[in-house]
From TrEMBL, chain A:
<comment type="similarity">
    <text>Belongs to the ABC transporter superfamily.</text>
</comment>
<dbReference type="GO" id="GO:0005524">
    <property type="term" value="F:ATP binding"/>
</dbReference>
<dbReference type="InterPro" id="IPR027417">
    <property type="entry name" value="P-loop_NTPase"/>
</dbReference>
<protein>
    <submittedName>
        <fullName>ABC transporter ATP-binding protein</fullName>
    </submittedName>
</protein>
<keyword id="KW-0067">ATP-binding</keyword>
<dbReference type="InterPro" id="IPR017871">
    <property type="entry name" value="ABC_transporter-like_CS"/>
</dbReference>
<dbReference type="GO" id="GO:0016887">
    <property type="term" value="F:ATP hydrolysis activity"/>
</dbReference>
<dbReference type="InterPro" id="IPR003439">
    <property type="entry name" value="ABC_transporter-like_ATP-bd"/>
</dbReference>
<dbReference type="Pfam" id="PF00005">
    <property type="entry name" value="ABC_tran"/>
</dbReference>
<dbReference type="InterPro" id="IPR003593">
    <property type="entry name" value="AAA+_ATPase"/>
</dbReference>
<keyword id="KW-0813">Transport</keyword>
<dbReference type="InterPro" id="IPR050319">
    <property type="entry name" value="ABC_transp_ATP-bind"/>
</dbReference>
<feature type="domain" description="ABC transporter">
    <location>
        <begin position="4"/>
        <end position="246"/>
    </location>
</feature>
<keyword id="KW-0547">Nucleotide-binding</keyword>
<dbReference type="GO" id="GO:0055085">
    <property type="term" value="P:transmembrane transport"/>
</dbReference>
Length: 256, 554
C-alpha cells in the first residue's frame, strides 16, 4: 500500500510562452514504511516536487495522494490535518530554527501551533530529543548554542514530534560537513528502522541516497529518467544520465 | 516530573544602555519634579526683566521677568509627554501595518507596499506641517500630525524586515503546521526584528521631539500662555542677538532627551540579542621573524598563528610548504582553521582576527611585509566556494575578469580581453567572446567557476588558493572543475592550496594532504597513501569513513 503517491504531477512556473516546466508528469510512489530517494542535480525539480506535495507551489496537473485520498481540494480543516501527517525537514539548519526561540519552544509549537506551551508537552519533547540523541537540557537552549549537525537533529526532532505518517527530507545534509553528514545519516538510518518511517529523501548526492533509501528515483529537467530498488539502479544503471552521475561521485577510488 | 522551563531572560546591561537610561531618567525626573516645584515660577512675572544669568536666575530671565530655567524645565515636560504619545502611536500603527502587509494575500500586499513606499517619499516634517495646518493649532493636533507623519517610515522598515524573515524556513514550517497569523507575528516576526525596531523607536522619539518643537516654533503647536520647548525657542528668537542665553535652556533639553533616547535604543537593541556576548581584548607577543627561511619552495608558511582580538588562538602555529606544480590539500571540519589559513595567505582575514608567523611567503613576496595590492595580486589568487556571489551581478563578465590585468598589469582593455579569452578557452569555455559580453546571471554555476579559475590564472600567481571550489556545485559539474585544476597543475607550475571538508574530493586531486583539527595539523599524507587508505591518525580515519560511498554491492 502506497502511503504517499504523486501521479502525473506537472508544475509550471510563469505563464504562456515564457513558462518553464519544472515537473513534467512525474509519478513517484512511497510505500508505507519505506524510504524513496529522489536524486537529481540543481534544476531537476526535486525540491519543487516536495513543495508541490506540501502545496507551497501551485500544481498545473496531476494528483498528490495520501493513503489513496487526493489532497488537492481538501477543506481548510482537512488540509491542516494533512500538513500534520506529512512533515518537512528543510535543508538549511541555520534558517529552519527561529534564533529567538528555545528548542523547546520550537518543538512545542510543532505539537501545538496555537499555544506552543513547553510545560504541557515536556514529556513529548524529552522523548523526541532522546530519539535524536540530544541531551534533555537541549530544550532550554537557543539554536546558536548548537553546531550545524546538532541543529539538524533538532530539525529532525521538530518533524518527528507530531508522529507524522510521511517525512520529506529536502537535502538535509548538503549544508553540513562530510563528517557531520555521516553522523546525521546514521541517525536517520537508525530512526527509519526504529520508527518504521515512510520517507521521501531528496538529495543531489547518490552516495548519500544509497545509504538511507530502499528505492531511488532519478530526476532530470523535470522528468523521471530511472526508477527502481537502490541496489539495482546503482549497480546496473540503464540510463546514461544515471551513469554520468555515478561516475562523478568523488572519492570512490579511495580504499577503506 | 516537569522541570521548570522559565528561561533566564535577565536584561544584559551594556554601556550604551546604562548611559542612556541614566541620562534619560535623570532628565525626566528633574523635569517632572521641577514642573511641580517650579510650576508657578515659570509663569510668575517679576520686575527683573531681560537679565543675564545670576545666582538667583541661573539662566537669566525673559523680557517679562520670568525665570528661564524654570520655563525650560516646565516646557520640557509638555514636549516629553507629547513626544512619548506620538512615538507610541506611530510605532504601534507602523509596525502593525508593516507586519500585517506580509500576512496578506499577494495582490493586496503588493498594493499596500507601493502605498507605503509612495508615502515614505514625502519628508516627515513637511507632512506634519501640512497636517497640523489642516487640523489647526494646539498640542493634540501636533501630536496627531507628527504621529501620522512618522507611520510610513516605521511601516516600511517593518515591511522590509518582515519580507526577509518570511522567507526563512522556520516561518515556512510554522505556517505549514498551522500556526495562527497572530502567533506568527508575535513569535517569529517581532522577536527577530527587535533590534532595528528598538533603534527606530528611539529615532522616532527624537525626530518626533524635534518635529513637534519645530511646529510649536512656527506657531502651529502649543499656544501662549502654555509652553513647550518649541514655544520657548520662538519666544527667545526676537532677542537672539541681545540675549543669546535664552535659547540655551530649551536647546539643552531637546539635546539631552534625544541623545538619552538614542542611547537607550542602541543599548536595548544590543541587549535583545541572545547571541551577543562581550569578550575582553588582550594583546599577545609578536613572534620573531626569521628572514632567511632556507627554502626554495614557492610557498612557505612557518608557525602561522591566527588569533582573535581577545587573545584566543584559532590556528596554533602551523607550518607547511608547497612546491612548484604541487597541489596541497588542506582538510578539516568547520572550525578547524583551514579557511583562516587560506585567508591569512591572501591577507583577507576578517576584522578582529590577526595573523602572525615567523615566515609567510608566496613567490618572491613576503606576505608579512604588508605588500602593495599589485604585489599581492602577483603572489596569490583565490577561487571561492560560491561562484554565485563572487561576481558583481551588475557588471559584465568581461569588465570583471580583465580587472586584474588592466589595473595591476597596465594592459589595455583590448589586450586584457585577448588574454582572458585565451585562458577561458583553456578552461573549456566554448565561446569566450560571448561569455565576456554576458552578465553573471546568464551563466551556470559551473561556467562561473571556470571563469573564476581563468581570472585567477590571468595574474600568473605564485599561489592559487581554492577554498572549497566544488562544494556549491552539482556532482557532474564539480567533477569537471577538478579535472580542470589537475590539468592546470600539469601544464603550469602553479603551486595550489586546495581546501575542502571532503576527503573524497581531496583524495581525487591532491599530491599531498594536511589534515587539520582545531587549528593544528594532525597528519600529513601523500596522495598515494591516502588513496591506499594508509592513514594512522584516528581523526583522519573518521573523516575518510565519513565520505559517503555507494552502499551497493554489485
Amino acid at each position: 500500500m502506497n502511503t504517499l503517491a504523486v501521479e502525473d504531477l506537472t508544475v509550471r512556473f510563469g505563464r504562456g510562452a515564457r513558462s518553464v516546466t519544472a515537473l513534467n508528469a512525474v509519478s513517484v510512489a512511497v510505500p508505507s514504511g519505506r524510504t524513496v530517494g529522489l536524486v537529481g542535480e540543481s534544476g531537476s525539480g526535486k525540491s519543487t516536487l516536495a513543495k508541490a506535495i506540501l502545496g507551497i507551489v501551485p500544481v498545473a496537473g496531476g494528483r498528490v495522494l495520501l493513503d489513496g485520498t487526493d489532497v488537492r481540494g481538501l477543506g481548510r480543516q482537512q488540509r491542516r490535518a494533512f500538513l500534520r501527517r506529512v512533515q518537512l525537514i528543510p535543508q538549511d539548519p541555520y534558517s529552519s530554527l527561529n534564533p529567538r526561540r528555545t528548542v523547546g519552544q520550537t518543538l512545542a509549537e510543532a505539537l501545538d501551533p496555537v499555544h506552543a506551551r513547553v510545560r504541557q508537552h515536556r514529556e513529548a519533547i524529552d522523548a523526541v530529543l532522546a530519539e535524536v540523541a540530544l541531551p534533555a537540557d537541549t530544550a532550554d537552549r537557543y539554536p546558536h548554542e548548537f553546531s550545524g549537525g546538532q541543529r539538524q537533529r533538532v530539525a529532525i526532532a521538530r518533524a518527528l514530534i507530531t508522529r507524522p505518517e510521511v517525512v520529506i527530507a529536502d537535502e538535509i545534509t548538503s549544508a553540513l560537513d562530510v563528517s557531520v553528514q555521516a553522523e546525521v545519516l546514521a541517525l536517520l538510518d537508525r530512526l527509519r528502522h526504529e520508527l518504521t518511517l515512510t520517507m521521501l529523501f531528496i538529495s543531489h548526492n547518490l552516495a548519500v541516497v544509497s545509504q538511507v533509501s530502499d528505492e531511488v528515483v532519478v530526476l532530470r529537467h523535470g522528468d523521471v529518467v530511472e526508477t527502481g530498488p537502490v541496489g539495482e539502479v546503482f549497480s546496473r544503471p540503464t540510463d546514461d544520465y544515471t551513469r554520468d552521475l555515478l561516475a562523478a561521485i568523488p572519492g570512490q577510488g579511495a580504499a577503506r | 516530573m516537569a522541570r521548570t522551563v522559565t528561561r533566564t531572560r535577565r536584561l544584559r546591561w551594556n554601556p550604551a544602555l546604562v548611559a542612556g537610561t541614566v541620562l534619560l531618567s535623570a532628565t525626566a525626573l528633574v523635569v517632572l519634579v521641577a514642573s511641580f516645584v517650579l510650576g508657578e515660577d515659570a509663569h510668575a512675572l517679576s520686575a527683573q526683566a531681560g537679565q543675564g544669568p545670576s545666582g538667583e536666575h541661573w539662566l537669566g530671565t525673559d523680557d517679562l521677568g520670568r525665570d528661564l530655567l524654570a520655563r525650560s524645565l516646565v516646557g520640557a515636560r509638555a514636549s516629553l509627554f507629547m513626544a512619548l504619545i506620538a512615538t507610541g502611536i506611530s510605532m504601534f500603527l507602523g509596525v502593525l501595518i508593516g507586519a500585517a502587509v506580509w500576512t496578506a494575500p499577494r495582490r493586496l500586499r503588493e498594493f499596500a507596499l507601493r502605498i507605503v513606499e509612495i508615502s515614505v517619499s514625502y519628508p516627515e516634517l513637511l507632512v506634519a506641517v501640512v497636517l497640523a495646518a489642516i487640523l489647526g493649532s494646539g498640542p493634540w493636533q501636533v501630536v496627531v500630525a507628527v504621529s501620522v507623519a512618522n507611520i510610513p517610515v516605521t511601516a516600511r522598515l517593518t515591511a522590509n524586515l518582515s519580507g526577509a524573515i518570511f522567507q526563512r524556513d522556520y516561518v515556512t514550517t510554522a505556517r505549514l503546521v498551522g500556526v495562527p497569523r497572530r502567533a506568527l507575528i508575535s513569535r517569529h516576526l517581532m522577536p527577530n526584528m527587535a533590534e532595528p525596531l528598538l533603534i527606530q523607536l528611539a529615532a522616532s522619539f527624537s525626530t518626533g521631539l524635534v518635529a513637534m518643537s519645530a511646529l510649536s516654533f512656527v506657531g502651529l503647536g502649543v499656544q501662549t500662555p502654555d509652553i513647550d520647548l518649541g514655544r520657548l525657542l520662538a519666544d527667545a528668537l526676537p532677542a537672539i542677538y541681545s540675549r543669546p542665553v535664552e535659547v540655551v535652556g530649551p536647546t539643552m533639553m531637546i539635546l539631552l532627551m534625544s541623545i538619552g533616547a538614542m542611547l537607550v535604543g542602541d543599548g536595548l537593541a544590543a541587549a535583545a540579542d541572545p547571541r551577543v556576548t562581550r569578550r575582553p581584548a588582550s594583546t599577545r607577543p609578536v613572534p620573531t621573524r626569521s628572514k632567511d627561511v632556507g627554502s626554495a619552495a614557492p610557498v612557505v608558511v612557518r608557525d602561522l598563528v591566527v588569533s582573535r582580538a581577545d587573545g584566543t588562538d584559532l590556528v596554533h602555529g602551523i607550518s607547511f610548504e608547497i612546491g612548484r606544480g604541487e597541489i596541497l590539500g588542506l582538510v578539516g571540519e568547520s572550525g578547524s582553521g583551514k579557511s583562516l589559513t587560506a585567508l591569512s595567505l591572501a591577507r583577507l582575514l576578517p576584522d578582529g582576527l590577526t595573523a602572525s608567523a615567523t615566515a609567510l611567503r608566496a613567490g618572491s613576496v613576503d606576505l608579512l611585509d604588508r605588500p602593495a595590492r599589485a604585489e599581492l595580486a602577483d603572489a596569490v589568487a583565490m577561487i571561492y566556494q560560491d561562484p554565485g556571489t563572487t561576481f558583481n551581478p551588475a557588471l559584465r563578465m568581461g569588465t570583471q575578469l580583465t580587472e586584474v590585468l588592466r589595473v595591476h598589469r597596465g594592459k589595455s582593455a583590448k589586450q586584457a580581453r585577448e588574454i582572458i579569452a585565451g585562458l577561458l578557452a583553456g578552461v573549456h569555455i566554448t565561446d569566450p567572446p560571448r561569455l565576456l559580453r554576458s552578465h553573471p546571471y546568464e551563466l551556470s554555476g559551473g561556467m562561473r567557476q571556470r571563469a573564476m579559475i581563468a581570472a585567477a590564472l590571468a595574474a600568473e600567481p605564485a599561489l592559487l588558493v581554492a577554498d572549497e571550489p566544488t562544494t556549491a556545485l552539482d556532482v557532474t559539474v564539480a567533477a569537471g572543475i577538478l579535472t580542470e585544476l589537475a590539468r592546470i597543475r600539469d601544464e603550469t607550475d602553479t603551486a595550489m592550496l586546495f581546501i575542502s571538508h571532503d576527503l573524497g574530493v581531496v583524495t581525487e586531486l591532491c599530491d599531498r594532504v594536511l589534515v587539520m583539527k582545531d587549528g593544528v595539523i594532525v597528519e600529513e599524507l601523500t596522495g598515494e597513501a591516502l588513496r591506499a587508505g594508509q592513514v594512522s591518525e584516528p581523526y583522519t580515519r573518521m573523516l575518510l569513513d565519513a565520505v559517503p560511498t555507494l552502499a551497493v554491492t554489485s
